[in-house]
Amino acid sequence: VDRLELEGVGVCDLTRDELFGRLRDALDGRAQVCLGFCNANMLLKALCTPAYAAALRSFVLVSDGLGIDLCSLLFRGRFFRQNLNGTDLIPAFLAAETRTRTLFLLGAKPGIAEAAARNLALLYPQHRIVGVRHGYFGPGETGAVLAEINAAAPDILLVALGNPAQETFIAENAHRLDARLLMGVGALLDYAAG
Ligand code: UDP
């Protein structure tokens, strides 16, 4: 897969079908995948913050938005084949998945993940939300959050803490989590909560 590579941050030029295939492979037991939707703002943060860039190295990053598409034109001489933003893509992926997947929703303000879970359960009756937790916790609570997630044993962990916090959380803790697919999803839970 061709990619945009800047300062060690690589954004894959995947089509939506190719990405769905990768996610399915992760869920069906191959290597754990950490997925990030990289917009220009996130790329800029990574270029300015080496620790964030390092965290993103363990991610499959896909291109989200016009800004990063313009970067691609500038540095690679062509646009990305498709724009893959999380807000469209995650609902589409969940809809396309016929096999039952279990999800844990981490992030957003208290009450939001619960409301999102209720709506997602109606929209995707084939899947199961096995846990939710709001995203306002201190570093001292991380161990308990990880334990709560592993106890629920989700296939998919959606992390909505904003960036860089969500990707940093995933990068630091993926090896301690059993979920097969971990995604930084920005404001998705707020949207899903309605
Ligand atoms: N959020 C959170 N914990 C925090 C900060 C933010 O759970 O400490 C949530 C926030 O409630 C929202 C999501 O992260 O649901 C995305 O936040 P925001 O829009 O501020 O971040 P962005 O994606 O724009 O960087």
Automatic annotation (TrEMBL):
Swiss-Prot/TrEMBL keywords: Glycosyltransferase, Transferase
Domain of life according to the entry: Bacteria
The UniProt record lists the keyword Acetylation: no
Keyword Transferase included in the entry's annotation: yes
Protein's UniProt name: N-acetylmannosaminyltransferase
Organism: Methylobacterium platani JCM 14648
